[in-house]
Every structure is written in C-alpha cells, then in structure tokens.
C-alpha cells in the first residue's frame, strides 16, 4: 500500500444523528479526493437521504465495493454493511440504528486489520443504543482497545490545545478511586510519545491538572494532589519527561496556561473536554497509543439538529486532515528511529548488518 494514496475508512456512525450529514458535507469538496482515497462504511440509502439539500452534494455518486481492497482513487468508495430495510429517522434513537453503527465499525476494523486501510475516522455513535450482548463498550476508544490491545490514550486535539485524559468514560464518583500514581505516569509516557511520534514535537512540555478545587488547598479540599498526582509528576521527571503541576484547572485555563505547554493531562473526561470544546469548537478526538491511526469529530450525534442540514462539518474535515497528518508523522518517525545499520544494508540490497559487521580499524604494530 506504500505506493498508493492513503486509504481512510470512514464509518457513518448513528444514521439518525448528524454523522452521515457531516461525512457527506466533508466529502462534497472534490479536493478531498486529491488528499486520500475515502472508503465509507454504511449504506447508499443513508448517504442518498442525507445528501439532499447539501450544497455541492446533489451529484455525489458512490462506488459500491466489497472491501477496502477494491477501493479506487478519486472515487467515493462505499462498503455496504447496513441492512437495506434500516429505517432512517433523524433525531430518533433506535436499537436498529445502534446495531447498524456497530456493523459499520466492525467492517472497518476488519479491513484495517487486514492491512487494507491506513487510517480510520469514525462519525459519532450513541453510546446507549449500541449496547447489545456482543457489544458492551462505553465508546469507540474502549472497543478499539479490545480489538487492537493495550489501553489507548484519549486525546482531544487542535492547533491551539491538546488534552490527554487519565480516565475516560467512567462516572465522576469513581474518578478518585481510578487514578493512581502508576496510571498517571503511564498516561504521561503515552502522551509524550504521541506528541513526539504523531505530532512531531521534539520534547513536549506537559501540564498536569489537579483533581480537586484549588489543587486541594494543602489537603483541605482533598489529598490526591499530594498522595498521588505530585508523586507521579516527580516520577515522570526522573524519567526525563517534562511534566509540571499539579495545576488547579480553573485558574490554569483562565490564565491561558495552555499557551505555554504542548499538552495538558486531565484527570477525568469533563475536566479536560469542557475547556477544550469551549476553546476549539472544531477539535478532533484522537485515539493515541493505538497501533492504527484513528480520529473522530469531537461532537456527538446531536439528535436535536439531525436531518435539518445545519450541522457543521468542520470537525469532521479536521478529523480527516489530522488522520492524514498523523499517518505521515508516524511513518516519518518510524524511518528516523529505525536501526540505521539495518536500513543501510537493506538499501544496499544485502543482508541485515550489526555493529560487528562494520569494517574494523587495523591495529597498529
């Protein structure tokens, strides 16, 4: 696939939300085909429904293929994986729509596992209606972790701000029991590596947020800063990770602290996402520390405006652009960090080399 244009799998998400609309709007720009080969996972019926009334999309046509292996450049390739009888009801949550969203996601994951896709961009799902006996995940991130292994880092990214999360989709009441010094250190390692390999930051500076108001006020408002978070920062610093804090979240954002760091690590979902979405309405959700590239718009299904033709496709476009950028950055990082002796010998057309194979300086008499 290295000789082909990058192939990006795009899942439609909940067909009764704004996912299909923002996908259509993003792909209605013919210049997109110059950047990558789109492979949509969904249904022609759904796409044709939502392209009505979208400026520039009236004449969009979709080439139905069996899998990403058959995708053709400069075409809107479609892997049909939703039932023909699927009822389209904009603004309505239904089990059928949830099942269809899962089917599209599974089909895309199968193709990326087979090496037929370079990256995955997912439109939003409804975390409630996707639940079934064979899908018990609280979001894309958790499902992808089960499919590809590890414990991926959820990041929200824009040119202005990058936020990593220690905990993801859990109740707020459980946050304090689910953070530990070891978990925070692990997240700092993941965040540092993602900033370097995925975003080209040479040596990232990372701010770490406190859990409690006023960073605990010396233990008056909570002890996690002193017992858990500060020790994690000190451990990370001993590993040469440039981590700083813990900072009280409200004052840190209000004072523009995010302009002085490459990223911030938040303790829980809303602590990081509320200021992120307020500051960057067209941000991107990135699943870092995953073996494949996955991005998503930073919004949900937005049933309240679904089917009205008013959804903003800016975040979906940014998710597509960022998927391309991360894929390229990872390839460049892999080339820069591979064993230079092996790289040299492969280019010479011979066997792999080791240090012992290098010419030796003759000994002096």
Q: What does this 3D model show about the protein?
A:
- This protein folds into two domains: 1-150 and 290-349, Isopropylmalate Dehydrogenase (3-Layer(aba) Sandwich); 159-279, Isopropylmalate Dehydrogenase (3-Layer(aba) Sandwich), CATH 3.40.718.
- The chain contains twelve helices and twelve strands.
- It has 365 residues and is an alpha/beta fold.
- It is globular.
- It is 37% helix and 15% strand.
- The model is unreliable at 351-365 (pLDDT under 50).
Give the structure's gist in a few sentences.
The protein has 365 residues and is an alpha/beta fold. Helix content is 37%, strand content 15%. The protein has two domains: 1-150 and 290-349, Isopropylmalate Dehydrogenase, CATH 3.40.718; 159-279, Isopropylmalate Dehydrogenase (3-Layer(aba) Sandwich).
Strand order of the main beta sheet, please?
A: 3-4-2-1-5-12-11-6-7-10-8-9
Low-confidence stretches: 351-365
Major sheet attributes: 12 strands, mixed
At the fold tier of CATH, the topology name of the largest domain is Isopropylmalate Dehydrogenase
Mind telling me the C-alpha Rg? 23 Å
N-to-C CA distance? 54 Å
- Topology order in helix (H) and strand (E) letters: EHHEHEEHEHEEHHEHEHEHEEHH
Tally the helices: 12
Kindly name the structural category. Answer: alpha/beta
Number of strands: 12
CATH class of the largest domain: Alpha Beta
Please give the share of residues in helix. Answer: 25-40%
Beta-sheet strand percentage? 15-25%
Shape descriptor: globular
């Amino acid at each position: 696939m290295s000789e082909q244009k990058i192939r990006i799998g795009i899942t439609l998400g909940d067909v009764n939300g704004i996912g299909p609309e923002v996908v259509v709007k993003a792909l209605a720009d013919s210049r997109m085909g110059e950047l990558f080969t789109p492979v949509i996972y969904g249904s022609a019926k759904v796409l044709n429904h939502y392209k009505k009334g979208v400026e520039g999309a009236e004449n969009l046509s979709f080439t139905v293929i069996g899998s990403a292996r058959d995708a053709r450049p400069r075409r809107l390739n479609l892997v049909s994986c939703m039932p023909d009888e699927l009822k389209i009801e904009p603004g309505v949550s239904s089990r059928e729509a949830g099942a269809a969203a899962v089917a599209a996601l599974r089909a895309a994951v199968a193709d990326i596992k087979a090496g037929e896709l370079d990256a995955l961009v997912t439109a939003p799902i409804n975390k409630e209606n996707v639940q079934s006996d064979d899908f018990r995940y609280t979001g894309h991130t958790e499902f992808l972790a089960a499919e590809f292994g590890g414990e991926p880092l959820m990041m929200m990214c824009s040119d202005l701000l990058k936020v990593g999360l220690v905990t993801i989709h859990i109740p707020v009441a459980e946050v304090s029991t689910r953070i530990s010094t070891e978990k925070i250190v692990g997240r700092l390692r993941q965040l540092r590596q993602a900033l370097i390999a995925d975003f080209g930051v040479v040596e990232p500076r990372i701010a770490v947020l406190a859990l409690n108001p006023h960073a605990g006020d010396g233990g008056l408002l909570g002890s996690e800063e002193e017992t858990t978070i500060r020790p994690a920062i000190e451990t990370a610093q001993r590993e040469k990770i440039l981590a700083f804090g813990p900072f009280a979240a409200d004052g840190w954002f209000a004072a523009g602290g995010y302009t002085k760091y490459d990223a911030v690590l938040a303790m829980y979902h809303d602590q990081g996402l509320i200021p992120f979405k307020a500051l960057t309405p067209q941000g991107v959700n990135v699943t870092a520390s995953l073996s494949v590239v996955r991005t998503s718009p930073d919004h949900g299904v937005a049933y309240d405006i679904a089917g009205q033709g008013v959804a903003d496709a800016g975040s979906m476009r940014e998710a597509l652009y960022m998927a391309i950028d991360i894929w390229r950055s990872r390839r460049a990082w892999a080339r820069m960090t591979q064993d230079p002796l092996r790289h040299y010998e492969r280019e010479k057309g011979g066997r792999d080399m080791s240090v012992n194979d290098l010419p030796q300086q003759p000994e002096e008499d």
